[in-house]
Every structure is written in C-alpha cells, then in structure tokens.
Write a structure and sequence with these properties.
By secondary structure, the protein is of the alpha+beta class. It is built from 3 helices and 7 strands. One of its GO terms (molecular function) is fatty acyl-CoA hydrolase activity.
Length: 143
C-alpha cells in the first residue's frame, strides 16, 4: 500500500476547496449519492486544484505526462443527497520522486460527509513510468 498520510476530518487542514452540486443522475433509488461517484468528485476537484495552482492537467498532457490512480480510499461517513452543495476540500498530502497523494474531505453545510485519498503515479502519455514534475514534488510536504 502506497497510502502514507491519513486524511483528516478538519476542513482547516486542506488548502483548496471546490464546490459541486449533486445531480439527480448521481443518486440511487434511495435518493443518496451512489458510492462510485465520490471518486469522480475527487477527480473533478483535483483537476480544479491543478488549474488553480497554474498547472492545469491539459499542460501535463502537453508535456507528455499522465497521473494514473494507483490506489484510492474512501470513508463514507454520512450520505450526500440530490441537490446538496458539497464542498470538496483537497490537500496535496505527500510526494516522492514518482508518486503523489491527494487527501479529500467532503462537507455539506460544514458537516463532514466523506473523506478519502488517491495515490497517483506518473507516466508518459505512452504509459512508461517517469518522475513527477519537480514543481509538484516541491509543493508537497515530505512523505
């Protein structure tokens, strides 16, 4: 397992937030968000974070890089429901020369709903492993 930093449930521990409104299509017959959608919420927030810090994912692709997910972890604490406005809190938790970990916390009106983490590798667009960009390693706390 590459996961090295446990996500916290304190929103103040996260340096970036992104809001997402739950769409009806993302809910199940009980009116709650289907568990598989949380990884998509993490991804949307991660892409927004990269754009926010001046390194949009399109730039990664232009530079010949990808960041495939190697591991994902989600703790479902309370359900999200249709039309909830979720705040996804994101933190670049760790980086090595070849992997990085992002931690996430989802809140609705300040109430913790979900936490999680994703661990990513770095490959060329041809799928060959390569080192992370230096700027990303420099942004992360030590693993």
């Amino acid at each position: 397992m590459r996961l090295s930093v446990e996500p916290t449930t304190d929103p103040n521990d996260y340096e970036f937030t992104h809001q997402i409104r739950v769409r009806f299509v993302e809910t199940d017959a009980m009116g709650i968000v289907h568990h598989s959608n949380y990884l998509a919420y993490f991804e949307e927030s991660r892409v927004a974070y990269l754009a926010h810090i001046g390194h949009p994912f399109t730039q990664w692709r232009d530079d010949g890089l990808e960041s495939p997910v190697l591991e994902s972890f989600v703790t479902y604490r309370q359900p999200c429901r249709f039309d909830d406005v979720m705040t996804v809190h994101l933190h670049l938790a760790a980086a090595t020369r070849a992997t990085f970990q992002m931690n996430y916390l989802i809140t609705v009106d300040g109430e913790v709903r979900t936490s999680g983490a994703t661990v990513h590798g770095c490959t060329t667009t041809a799928g060959r492993p390569t080192r992370l960009p230096a700027w990303l390693v420099e942004l992360a706390p030590s693993a």
